[in-house]
Amino acid sequence: MKWLLLLGLVALSECLVKVPLKQAKTLRDHLRETGKLKEFLETYKVDPGSKFFPRLAAQMSTEPMTNYMDMSYYGTISIGTPPQDFNVIFDTGSSNLWVPSVYCSSVSCSNHNKFNPASSSTFQSTNQPLDVAYGTGSMTGVLGYDTVQVGSIVDTRQEFGLAYTEANFFYYMHFDGILGLGYPSIASDGATPVFDNMWSQGLLSQDLFSVYLSANGASGSVVIFGGYDTSYYTGNLNWVPLSSKGYWQINMDSVTMNGNVIACNGGCQAIVDTGTSLIAGPSSGIANIQSAIGASQNSNGEYAVNCNTMGSLQNIVFTINGIQYPVPASAYINQFTQHCTSNFQDTSAGLWILGDVFIREYYVVFDRAGDYIGLAPVA
Fold first, then answer.
1. How many CB atoms lie within 10 A of CB 167?
2. Are 194 and 235 within one domain?
3. Considering Cα of 292, then 294, then 295, then 299, what sign does the dihedral take?
C-alpha cells in the first residue's frame, strides 16, 4: 500500500552534523559506468551544425505546476502521438504513472481527460494488469507503452497505466492522474518509473530532480528534472542520506516546540512526500502536537484551533541530520474566513510524512545519484 496520497484532502472533505555539498552524477559518469560512453560519443559527436537539427541531448527541464488551494500541485504532461494532455500529481510517495483511459467505467473518470490508445500511433499494448493502492483510494487497469513528454523532455517507450477503474475520491480532484517519483522498488507490477526511464535514455544532465512549492495559492511552483535552481532557496543545501530506498525515507532526530521534545523522541523515520498535503505522523506524536497548539477535534472531524492564538504559537521544529527545520504557525495552521484548523494528522503508516506543509518551507532536491535529499529554506 502506498502512503497517504493527498492526506490533507481527506481531512478537508547550529550545528551538529553537516553533510558536505557533493557533485551529483553526470550523464558522462553514468554512461562511463555502464560501458556506453564510447558508443554515445561516436553516435552523438559534436557537430557545429547540429544546433540546426534536432538530436538527443541531456538536459534540465522545468515543469510548471498549478497550486490548487495549497492542497495539491499538478502539472501538464502529454502521452502519445499526437500528444494527449493530462494534469498529473508529481508524487514522490509512489512510483507509477497512470491516467484515466477511454475504457474506464468509474464515475471518477467521467470528468477527467481520458487516454485513447487507438488515437496514438506510438502506443504499444500489453496484457499486464495494474493495481495501485493509495491511502485515499486505488485504481486498476492495464499497462501500456507510449511516448511521454514532461516539460521539454520526450521520454519514449514509457510504461504507464491506463485506468479502467478509479476510487470515487478521484472524482473530486482537479488532476487526471499521478506520476510517481519514488524508487523502482515500490512501483506496482514492476513498471519502470518515468524518472528511471528518462535517466536510462540519457535525457537528463544529472541524476536528480528538485521541487519548489508556492504558498497561499500563488503561481510559480515547479518540479525540475535533471537539476536544481539556486534562485529558489537561501543559504546552502543540507544533504541528508536516505535510510531506505523506496520512498524518499530519512532518519529524523526529533520534533520540538519551545525547546521541548513533543514527538519523535530518540529518533524516528520520515519520508518527504509531495503527494501528501499535510504533515502526518504516528497517533501518539500527533496527539502531543495537537495538544501543544491547542487543537481539538470538532464535529466535522477537523482539528480546530483558536485563530486568536496563532500570533503566540511557537515554531514546531523538525531536526533532521542535526539541522533544525522550523515550521511556523502560519504554515501548520490553515486560516479560513471564520475558523482555523491544524495541518497535522495522524496516520497508521508508522512513519512521519513530511508533506506539502513542510515542503512549502524548504526547497527539496531528490538526488538519485547519491541517494540523498537536499534541503534549504525557500527564498
1. 15
2. no
3. positive
pLDDT in tens, 197-235: 999 999 999 999 999 999 999 999 999 999 999 999 999
Residues 175 and 269 in one domain: no
Question: Would the CA dihedral through 59, 191, 353, 89 be positive or negative?
Answer: positive
Measure the CA–CA gap between 88 and 93, rounded to whole angstroms: 14
The verdict on residue 2 lying in a domain is no
28 forms beta bridges with none
Instruction: Report the predicted TM-score, pTM, of the whole model to 2 decimal places.
Output: 0.86
Which residue numbers are catalytic?
91, 273
Nearest to 207 by CA among 27, 6, 4: 27
Task: State the number of CA atoms in the 13 A half-sphere of 46 facing the CB.
Answer: 1
Nine-digit cell string for 41? 560519443
For residue 14, is it within any domain?
A: no
Do residues 129 and 180 share a domain? yes
For residues 89 and 200, membership in a common domain is answered with yes
Please name which of 260, 259, 217, 241 lies closest in space to residue 375, comparing C-alpha atoms: 241
- Give the three-class secondary structure for 80: coil
**Do both 204 and 254 map to the same domain?**
no
Quick one: 160 and 254 in the same domain?
no
Residues 48 and 167 both lie in one domain: yes
319 neighbors 313 (Cβ within 8 angstroms): no
- Residue ranges making up the domain that contains 149: 27-222
CA distance 176 to 87: 5
Q: What is the pLDDT of residues 69-95, one digit of tens each?
A: 999 999 999 999 999 999 999 999 999
Domains contained in the chain, number: 2
